[in-house]
Design brief:
The chain contains 6 helices and 9 strands. By secondary structure, it is α+β, with helices and mostly antiparallel strands. Strand 8 and strand 9 form a beta hairpin.
């Protein structure tokens, strides 16, 4: 609004325009503050991303160093152990001369202990390779009977040494498989020796059948069983269930986690049913033809 007085011009302010100007000024200040905050946030996110990338690289390097160390140590340990097992095999065969019955018993105990230690080393090495995404599937033509019999040959002496009744039931027909024989065999050995370990008396039984192109192997035992709270944790690395009625057997706590991961690599799965006081049943399902997977796909 404009007013004239004595030849001079007086400009009166418009309240609406003044209020709009103030609002614009406030909005501009808020926008500037937001832009500054956004800039600080972007710098913070960039710095955090850089730190995370460094941490990831350090973790990968640590995993690689761990895998290299375990691979080297396992090789150094397995070499003398295999020599020990070889010598005990010769002694039990009566070479270079026949042993007495009591000497044979003692040598057999040494042999079983060496094989048990060899298995623990293999568990640690396999777990390390899986964690470092270095484990791959190498399928070959084999048979269900061959894999099961090889695993049973390792576990049966351990069961008999504890006075357990060890039984295996195979399909009547010899059915072929195209799978990674080493991983399949190791998984079966882990399940059988685990059942022997946690069974003080009674039976360890392996039932094998083929259903819809899938090998189904069920390992049952009459051991102490597993409580409901422990069932959710037994496939976690290094977890070992505690029992009130028996001493906790030794071990790495990797047998079951490794077995489940190997089963997944071979396109199958591993499940368990159990309750305290009623034994356990571990069910391994593997396709007769293993899929091709990458190491990272197996790290579940």
């Amino acid at each position: 609004m404009t007013a004239t007085s004595s030849g001079s011009t007086i400009v009166a302010s418009d309240p609406v325009l003044d209020a709009s100007a103030r609002r614009i000024n406030r909005l501009e200040s808020q926008v500037a503050a937001l832009e500054q905050l956004l800039d600080v946030t972007e710098r913070t996110v960039t710095e955090q991303s850089d730190r995370l990338e460094v941490a990831r690289e350090e973790a990968e390097q640590a995993n690689q160093a761990k895998a290299d160390f375990l691979a080297t140590m396992s090789h150094e340990l397995r070499t003398p152990l295999n020599a020990m097992i070889g010598y005990t095999d010769l002694w039990i065969m009566g070479l270079p001369e026949k042993l007495t019955a009591s000497m044979t018993t003692q040598v057999e105990r040494v042999r079983l202990s060496a094989k048990h230690l060899l298995q623990l080393i293999e568990e640690i090495l396999t777990f390390s390779r899986i964690e470092a995404a270095q484990e791959t599937v190498e399928p070959i033509d084999t048979s269900v009977a061959e894999l099961v019999q090889a695993a049973a040959a390792v576990a049966e002496p351990l069961a008999l040494a504890k006075g357990l009744h060890f039984t295996v039931n195979l399909p009547k027909q010899n059915i072929g498989m195209f799978t990674d024989a080493r991983k399949c065999r190791q998984t079966l050995i882990n399940l059988l020796t685990n059942a022997v370990k946690f069974t003080a008396r009674g039976t360890v039984h392996l039932e094998v059948e083929v259903i819809d192109s899938t090998m189904v192997a069920v390992v049952t035992d009459t051991g102490e069983g597993i409580s409901e709270e422990n069932l959710a944790q037994i496939f976690e690395p290094f977890f070992q269930a505690t029992h009130t009625n028996i001493d906790r057997p030794g071990g790495t706590g990797l047998g079951l986690p490794v077995s489940r991961r190997l089963a997944a690599m071979l396109g199958g799965d591993l499940t368990v049913t159990s309750a305290l006081g009623s034994g356990s049943a571990f069910t391994l399902r593997l396709p007769l033809r293993a899929p091709t997977v990458t190491p990272t796909e197996a790290s579940v």
